[in-house]
Predict the structure of Taste receptor type 2.
Amino acid sequence: MEACHSPQQSNVTSYGATTLAITTLEVFAGMWINAFIVCVLCIDWMKKKTLNSNEKILLLLGCSRFCFLCFSWVYCSFSITYPNYLYVQLTFQLIVFFQSFFNCCNLWVSACLCVFYCIKITNFRNSFFIYLKVKIDKMVPWLLLASVLSALAIGIIAYDMADTNLSNNCNSSRQGNFSIVSGKMDKHFFQTYFIYGFGFVTSFTGVISSALLLLFSLWRHKRRMQKNSMNSLSMDAHIRAMKSILSFFIMYSINFIFLILSLIPSTKEENYVALLGLLYLYAFPGVHSLILIFSNPKLEKTLIRILSFVNEFWCVGKKG
């Protein structure tokens, strides 16, 4: 492998050390949360020899988020501590490829999950929605395959972009032009940024449409229950579902904004706005997966059982 610059010792600033410490906590917490989802679903898969559509989506989502956090932490830690060991041929391109692939896979599968919930829960009498409700279980594997292929295409684009950017930086460094930064973006970079952003916009559009349709359907169902004077427990359950979906929509909206900002080169400077965006991007996979755990009865019961066991073991250890 060929490095652009000669290796040098780590020169970590207080800003970099703080960023690395916080992101490390977020990443490892998110990895444990998503690893829990994957382990529970895989054990259940081995027992039942099958998974329903919801579990298939959650399994792929947990795997993609776990891998995304792994590669993101490697990229973040090396870029802060030993950047000259990161920005070398092939190493940098591969990390960017896998990080982009798993990140986009995370976004697309999240959109699939939202679309799945929308079709399963909505009560629209439109013939198209009725057809989708009947066929959605057969469509889920194809939606997941399309998500993986789309993420793979964006990952390849990111790899090509990283390769071109690294080659240009290496050429400039060999010529001694370390401080020269071009103010123009050539046609190649415009196309790659456009396609890269297009993947985010498309997935986010699916999430927005599904969330709004689902909220509208639940609102109509709530009004119908009020008119029919049905029991308050059922109404409270629907209200909690609406709050849960609304919180998901808000989280995904903020996540999308930071993802778009992360594509803009001017936001890469070391400032507190960039730090806030980075911390949120790394916290989102873990926090949202935790919400999904408490929204799934099987995962929630398993987590509570494990926490109860750990608490009892801890209490016995303290008494001993």
Q: What stands out?
A: The chain has a mean pLDDT of 75. DSSP finds nine helices and no strands in the chain. Residues 215 and 280 are 25 Å apart (CA to CA).
